[in-house]
Amino acid sequence: MLLNLWNLHNSHHQTTELFLHISQHLANPPPFSVYTVSEKKTKKNQKNIVYQNFSFFFTQVFNDPIHGHIELDSLLVKIIDTPEFQRLRNIKQLGGSYYVFPGASHNRFEHSIGVAYLAGELATALMVKQPDLNINDRDVLCVQIAGLCHDLGHGPFSRLFDRMFNPEADPATKDWKDASIAMFNHLLENEDNKVKEEEDYELLLPEDLIFIKEMIKPIKSDDTKVLWPYKGRDENKSFLYEIVSNNQNGIDVDKFDCLARDCHHLGIRNNFDHHRFIMFARVCDVNGRKHICSRDKEVSNLHDMFHTWVSLHKKAYQHRVTQSVEMMIKDALLEANKRINIVGSGGNTFHLSTAKTDMKAYTKLTDQVVEEISKSTNADLEKAKGILKRITTRDLYWFVGQAKPVSKVVNLDYGMKDKDLINKIYFYNKKNLKKAFPILESETALAFLRVYLKEPKTKTAKDKAKKCFREWCKENDFEVLLYFYLIALIDINFSVRTNLLYCNIIAIKKVTYKTLPAEIVA
Predict the structure, then answer these.
(1) What is the C-alpha to C-alpha distance for residues 364 and 380, in angstroms, rounded to an integer?
(2) Mind listing the GO molecular function terms for this protein (predicted)?
């Protein structure tokens, strides 16, 4: 009888009833379990989740150091067990930070599983608390798949490849989220994976696939104000697009897992409690559209989230040694770019910068490329190998100094360009669960410039670089700083490349720097 259960293709409710019936007749049910959710009223008329444990053979349990034991649907497991997803095991979550923080060895693989789990938790919490939202099992499963696959498009060392290497190697390159969608398509189309067997699941194709891809890369919030732009779900379920990647205010489960996981591995305190956010999350009407809102008393918890996020950038992500290492890895990849051939579809070969155009080739591109360069006997890769050897011997690009513009100030937006993010968050009060309101607040920050000396690093060269840096700062109205770990990079030839403060965390109007005179580097 149990063997025949594997061949059943009943609906969710039919399967649930069957397993409940079987579990009642089994003295010792199997170890794997899933939960059905029902509601009951407490004395205070508060809804509690009641879990009924019963035998289930189509889930898998993952023991995650951040979220504990989590159970994922069989379709998610099927996606995980593909080469396209397993590739994420070899892509560092924090790029070059591992060369500075010994604990930062975690990868995109476990982060993606964590995001899928949290996406399901938030969607299910809303479904239980607000049945009138008509969230169904398909919605929850689609949100989980989007969370699981949202980072499929990252290149080696994550944002190092996407934001440092690609812009120089191929300025016309697409966003890594486009690559995530392309990799997701490739995963589904790969016949060896056998994922696209819709008769085994309750997904409706192509509607649900469109919905999943729209959640992986949502449309910019400015483009959604008038007409509803999405096709996967109607406007009455607009809040579902805010769970995985929230373009409205930047508060999403992707950030929740990043904060918890990165703090854990970096040894930095995480003051944000995502469990509380999920507990108090509620969908309210805001200007005619449904958005995920938080309880008014959760303002301080959200401030903790933003402050922890900024603290991670100051202490870890933008650590000056991390940036030095990442610049060197980027330079090594640029040197090796057109000297490495990756076999893709139809036997065609691609370079590092073009592999993203062919997902079969891109599947083979991970952090391992650095080891392959280091061990290569190809004479054309000697310069790239030399740069990587300097990293292993700790002969890093030397930090000259950093400065901030005296009069240039910008608004903190924690990820939302040209907006004050706190103004985009809506809250509700327990006396009126349907009415949402903003809490206005403004903060400011400064853009910083950071300079590194590649070579030579003799005392004369260092002194000259420092002198030139101070002269340039004086001429361009910059205040020289000593120990602030912020950004903007200049090579020894002083051709300026601008990075934004906290990367995408702070929206900065780019300052037009004057090209430094040639005699500075003479």
Answers:
(1) 21
(2) dGTPase activity
Let me know: does 228 contact 219? Beta carbons within 8 Å: no
Q: What is the DSSP pairing of strand 289-295 with strand 426-429?
A: parallel
> Which residues make beta-bridge pairs with 44?
none
Q: How far apart are CA 167 and CA 170, in angstroms?
A: 6
Q: 20, 25, 34: which is closest to 69 by C-alpha?
A: 34
End-to-end Cα distance, the chain: 83
DSSP state of 162: I
Q: Which domains does the chain have, with CATH numbers?
A: 1-57 (no CATH), 64-318 (1.10.3210.10), 397-522 (no CATH)
Q: With beta carbons less than 8 A apart as the criterion, state whether 153 and 182 touch.
A: yes
Q: Which amino acid is at 357?
A: T
Q: What is the pLDDT along the chain (522 residues), one digit of tens a residue?
A: 333 333 334 444 444 454 444 444 444 433 333 333 333 333 334 433 333 333 344 689 999 999 999 999 999 999 999 999 999 999 999 999 999 999 999 999 999 999 999 999 999 999 999 999 999 999 999 999 999 999 999 999 999 999 999 999 988 877 889 999 999 999 999 988 877 654 456 788 899 999 999 999 998 765 556 789 999 999 999 999 999 999 888 899 999 999 999 999 999 999 999 999 999 999 999 988 999 999 988 888 988 898 899 899 889 998 999 999 999 999 999 999 999 999 999 999 999 999 999 999 999 999 999 999 999 999 999 999 999 999 999 999 888 777 666 544 333 344 444 445 566 788 888 777 877 777 654 433 445 677 777 776 677 877 777 778 777 777 777 776 543 322 333 333 333 333 322 222 222 223 333 333 333 332
β strands within 68-146, DSSP E:
68-73
Q: Compute the C-alpha angle 262/264/268, nearest 5°.
A: 85
Q: Which amino acid is at 59?
A: T
* Exposure of 417 in the CB half-sphere (CA atoms within 13 A): 9
Contacts by 136-140, CB closer than 8 A, 24 or more apart: 137/12, 137/202, 138/202, 138/203, 138/204, 138/208, 139/233, 139/237, 139/240
